[in-house]
Design goal:
single chain, about 180 residues, alpha/beta, 5-stranded mixed β-sheet, 5 strands
Length: about 180
């Protein structure tokens, strides 16, 4: 069975700033089959200059490291990426902060996706690393735990976007969590 890790970069957090509707600017995917990462990718998603250069988007671009100009010139728009995601054999979809991902992908136009959701990797990592009552852990803390166990957490050299690199790192974390629980 295919498991797809999805990561997102956005222009902000939903419902955080009155009158501001953040947009998706990049998506990263990594796929696991039979305990191996079999593929990964990442892409920018074109958004208007008016949106990406709005001062309310500035903090998000500082975090992601994405050049807003690159977003305005991205070859794929929301509908293109939506179509590719709809057509892809994603299998079970998981992510590190799955509630955030699910909430964001419930917004237009992404609500058109029909995804088979799996578990939250962040919650699983928190339980495995810190105990059954924990639900949250920072990605860096979880990756450090896996690295200390000897796992390779490096992103692929081909990753040019943070979301692509993080999708692969989260896939590697998920594989280490699975190994730890066998």
């Amino acid at each position: 069975m295919t498991t797809t890790i999805i990561t997102l970069d956005t222009t902000g957090l939903p419902n955080r700033t009155a009158g501001w509707g953040p947009r998706l600017v990049a998506v990263g995917l990594a796929q696991i089959e039979d305990g191996l990462i079999v593929g990964s990718t990442g892409t920018l998603i074109a958004q208007s200059a008016a949106h990406v250069f709005d001062p309310r988007a500035t903090p998000a671009f500082r975090v992601s490291g994405i050049d807003p100009e690159a977003v305005t010139q991205a070859p794929l728009g929301e509908e293109d990426v939506l179509r590719k995601l709809r057509d892809a054999p994603l299998g079970r979809v998981i992510g590190f902060n799955l509630p955030f991902i699910q909430d964001f992908l419930a917004l237009p136009p992404w609500e058109a996706l029909s995804l088979s959701w799996g578990d939250c990797v962040m919650a699983e990592a928190a339980r495995v690393i810190w105990g059954p009552s924990r639900q949250r852990i920072a990605l860096n803390a979880a990756i450090t735990w896996a690295a200390e166990r000897g796992a390779d957490l490096l992103p692929p050299k081909t990753a040019t976007l943070r979301c692509h690199a993080n999708a692969v790192r989260i896939a590697k974390l998920k594989l280490e969590l699975d190994r730890c629980q066998r």
